[in-house]
Specification:
Layout lengths: L2 H17 L17 H8 L22 H15 L5 H10 L2 H7 L2 H15 L5 H14 L5
Helix pairs in contact: 1-2, 3-6, 4-6
Length: about 150
């Protein structure tokens, strides 16, 4: 792979980071005449949309199956069966709407759970306070005995 390709990837990731930093910063939107090719790509591409993109070598290893991922899957499927959300809404929320930082930083089923929490609160199925209280309750149940 040529160094040009790596430079293109770095420019793209830098442009995305400027648009969607981990901590929101204030600033003015650029005028249309100031939008470069890299900035346009960063504005129009979501983090999961990598079709046709150059890639860099990475280590490929099998991950150990974790039970919480299966439980997250079942929970979110139950929400769909109950009509709380549809598969397309779930995909959009966990792949497109989360942004690069969360997309690349959260585990796969972690994004499912984040999306489930958002749809439950946004759809007024539970309040944010109820959700936080339930999370605290479950955490306490699973704390090691002292």
């Amino acid at each position: 792979m040529s160094s040009t390709t790596r430079e293109e990837i770095l420019r793209h990731l830098t442009a995305v980071a400027e648009l969607q930093p981990p901590v929101q910063k204030t600033g003015k939107a650029p005028y249309p005449t100031e939008i470069t090719h890299e900035l346009f790509r960063a504005y129009t591409r979501s983090p999961h949309d990598v079709g046709g993109e150059h890639d860099i070598p990475c280590d490929w290893s099998e991950e150990e199956h974790e039970a919480w991922g299966s439980r997250a899957y079942v929970t979110t499927e139950c929400l769909a069966w109950r009509g709380v959300w549809c598969a397309e809404e779930r995909r959009r929320m966990q792949n497109v709407d989360v942004g690069t930082t969360q997309y690349l930083g959260l585990p796969y089923y972690g994004r499912w759970l984040l999306s489930a929490a958002r749809v439950l609160v946004d759809g007024h199925h539970v309040t944010l306070t109820e959700l936080i209280n339930k999370i605290d309750e479950v955490k306490k149940r699973h704390e090691p005995a002292r």
